[in-house]
Amino acid sequence: MQDFFTWLGKTLGEIIRFMVDLLIHFFQNLGDAARGFFHGLSASLGVPTTLVSLLILVLGLWLLYLGLRALLRRRLVATLIWGLLGVTVLSWLIN
User: Fold this and answer.
1) Does the predicted TM-score (pTM) go above 0.85?
2) Are the C-beta atoms of residues 60 and 89 closer than 8 Å to each other?
3) Which residue range(s) make up the domain with 23?
4) Shared-domain flag, residues 72 and 95
5) What is the per-residue pLDDT across 49-86, written as a single tens digit (0 to 9) for each?
6) CA angle 59, 42, 25 (to 5 degrees)
7) What DSSP string describes the chain?
8) pLDDT of 95 over the 80 cut
9) Sign of the C-alpha dihedral computed for residues 58, 61, 67 and 72 taken in this order
10) What are the pLDDT digits (tens) for 13-55?
11) pLDDT at 2 > cutoff 80
């Protein structure tokens, strides 16, 4: 009877170890993929890979998105304002 529980404990430990190793490799590869994505994005735009640069990029894209939404709602003045602000922010970042 004791051999059965020894085997059960050993098997359960190996399963837990396998799951932990699998999750470690998954998150490590996920981090490498995200790092590569941000490096490629910043290299193609010609901006440094910093948190501030990425936040400014997101802000500029969000402003352009607001301009697109205003265009779809047929608000021409709002479209021009949001679009001009979005392009201005993105031009600050890229230049």
Assistant:
1) no
2) yes
3) 1-46
4) yes
5) 888 888 998 999 999 999 999 999 999 999 999 999 99
6) 105
7) -HHHHHHHHHHHHHHHHHHHHHHHHHHHHHHHHHHHHHHHHHHHHT----HHHHHHHHHHHHHHHHHHHHHHTT-HHHHHHHHHHHHHHHHHHH-
8) no
9) negative
10) 999 999 999 999 888 888 888 888 888 888 888 888 888 888 9
11) no
Closest CA to 87 of 75, 76, 68: 68
Same domain (yes/no): 80, 53:
yes
Joined together, the tokens standing for residue 47 give: 């901006």
Asked if 80 contacts 70 with a C-beta cutoff of 8 angstroms, the reply is no
Q: Taking the alpha carbons of 19, 20, 25, 27 in that order, is the dihedral positive or negative? A: positive
The tokens for 75 are 């608000």
| Count: domains in the chain | 2
Q: Which two tokens stand for residue 63?
A: 């402003």
